[in-house]
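Q: What would this complex look like in 3D?
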Amino acid sequence: MRTGLDEGVYEVFARKSRGEPLRHIGYIDAPGDELARVYAWKTYDEENWFEMCVVPRGAVIPVNRVEGPWAKNVPEGTSGP
Amino acid sequence: MGEERAGGDFRAMTPARRQGRPTASSPAGATGTNTTSGAPAPLARHILSLADTKRLLGIRYSDWLLGSPSIETGIAASSMSQDEWGHARLLYAMLKRLGFDPFEVEHERPAARYYSAPALDLPFADWAHFVAAVVVVDGALSVALESFADGNFALARSRVPKMLAEEEYHRRFGTAWFTRLAAAGSEGTARLRDAAGAMLPTTLAWLLPADEVHDALVADGHVWPEDRVRDRCRRRLRDTLATAGIDLDAVEPARDRWDPERRRGPGAPGEEAVERARGDLNRDLFVE
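A: Here is my prediction, written as structure tokens for the whole assembly.
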């Protein structure tokens, strides 16, 4: 059965307590923001997270590197540091 | 309709017939069974119906840990499956307060003595059935639990809210998948509509039993009156179902050949599922 769902990559960030900084804990594939929230919560459930967020990979703009998972988000005409 | 039933009959699990298992501290028969008919009293029937439906739902979800549309979806199905089994366990444990032995209830009943929603009698035929069940059956379960948590049974008031918090992710999962499949305009959309349409009449009857046993449950303040449950169900499901062209208000509960003891129509979950639910293959490994 074809579901007609195109998936995107979402980066997952979380912290265990209010005072702790958010840290990158992984990524998931999801066909939209709402399912990304569910998949992230259900996939990275090894901790009792105080806060978890997901960010579409395409929204992450690298600052000092032009390689890696976010390389294609480097603004046009920009090179490395 | 009791004499012909073999061992494992729910009626055999009244406190008076318990043998060799840890026993409940509550007075025998006082709240757990109707002492005249041997059928479970309203509160016991309600808890058993919720617990059995969650247990079967967990099994049906678990069938899709592999083979679902993506790895993440399979992980979510796995997690939801475990949520349902955990909730079932907590619900079965409530029966102890009513004088039943949860071990017997969980592990020694035949399929014909299960009180689960009929929509779960058979495995889901495809992914569309899975998604439909998350919205229709899991959704109805959550409405029933909201009602139960707001009633005057102390164990429900203290334990069910945590279940409902976990169920919120099931709701999000179901709504997102349902609306996306409904909008896809493919064969999957038609299957989704058929699956949800087939599950709704019996599931509405399960949620809204409209029998004397349920009336007693309402009168005792354990659950909301039918109108309030129906309204809550409508608010939860109507818009989602409408995306697939289903008019919830036009669906009538299917109460043909209603069995008031099991709070459902005829039939029973498949033996393959009940063997897993009872843990037949692991019986020698149980640790109490």
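A: To summarize the key features: Chain B is about 55% helix and 0% strand. Chain B touches chain A at residues 69-73, 75-76, 78-80, 126-128, 169, 172-173, 175-177, 180-181, 183-188, 191 (CB under 8 Å).
Q: Very helpful, thank you.
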